[in-house]
Amino acid sequence: MHLANEYRAGLVGPDHIRQLAAAAAEAATAIKQGWHTAWIPAGAMTPRLTSGAAPGLVETATNRLVLSTLDFDTAVSEYAQFTIAMPKSWDRGPVKFQYLWTAASGSGGVCLTLQAVSISDDDPLDVDRAPGAALTDTLLAANDLHVSAISGNLTVNGSPAVGDLTVFEVRRDVGDPADTLAVDAKLIGIRLLFNVNAGTDA
C-alpha cells in the first residue's frame, strides 16, 4: 500500500509523515560515505624554509596556459607543506594521494613521498611525521601533464582526533633508485583521498 493510501486509511499520522520527509531531506543532502578527494594545487603549498622546493610558473608556448608549480631539484631532496583542518566526517584512518606534474625536458622517473601528522589542541607544533608513502611516476614527454597512480595507504601520525590540524609534507626522494629524471620535477598539485564515515560534519 502506498504511503498516501496508508495516510488516508489512518495507518500513519501527520507526525510520521513529517518525520519521513525530514529523514528524506537529510538523506538527500548528506555526504555519501566512502572515499572523497581534496585538490591541493602547488600554489596552496608552502616551501620549507630549509631545503624548500622553488615556486615556479609554467606558460605554454602557443595558447599561453599558465600553471603555478613547485619545482623539486634533481640533486638534493626538497620539501613543501600544506595544512588541512580535516572534516569531522573523516574516519581518521589512512589517506592516499596522487600527484600531477610535468618537466621541461629529460627522461626517467620521479619519486615523491607524502608524510602527515595531526596536531590536537595544546599539542606541541614541533612534532614528527609518519614515515609516509612513496610514489614513482615516469616522464612520458616534456611539457605534458603527467598523472601518477594512486598511492597505497598513508598513515597519519599523531593519533588523529576530531578538530585536529593535519600537516602534510611532500618531498622528492632523489636518493631513491627510481628517481632518475635529471631535471626539476614541476609539481602542479596533489589529489588527497580520505575516507568519510559520516553523512555530515554536525
Observed structural traits:
single chain; 202 residues; mainly beta; Jelly Rolls; six-stranded antiparallel beta sheet; five-stranded antiparallel beta sheet; 2 helices; 11 strands; globular
Question: Describe it for me?
Answer:
With 202 residues, the chain is mostly beta strands. It has 2 domains: 1-30, no CATH class; 32-196, Galactose-binding domain-like (Jelly Rolls, Sandwich), CATH 2.60.120. 11% of the residues lie in helices and 38% in strands. The chain has 2 helices and 11 strands. The strands form 2 sheets. Strands 1, 3, 4, 6, 9 and 11 form a 6-stranded antiparallel sheet that branches. A 5-stranded antiparallel sheet has the order 2-5-10-7-8, with no helix packed on it. Strand 3 (54-59) and strand 4 form a beta hairpin. The longest helix is centred in the first third of the chain and has 16 residues, at 14-29. It is globular.
Unreliable stretches: none
Distance between the termini: 35 Å
CATH topology of the largest domain: Jelly Rolls
Q: Biggest β-sheet: count, sense, barrel?
A: 6 strands, antiparallel
- Structural domains: how many: 2
Instruction: Write down the oligomeric state.
Output: single chain
- How many alpha or pi helices? 2
Please give the CATH architecture of the largest domain. Sandwich
Compute the gyration radius: what is it?
23 Å
Percentage of residues in strands: 35-45%
- Overall geometry: globular
Main CATH class of the largest domain? Mainly Beta
Total number of beta strands: 11
Helicity level, as a percent range? 10-25%
Mean pLDDT: 88
Which sequence of SSEs, written as H and E, runs from N to C? HHEEEEEEEEEEE
Q: What structural category characterises the helix and strand content?
A: mainly beta
The name of the CATH superfamily of the largest domain reads: Galactose-binding domain-like
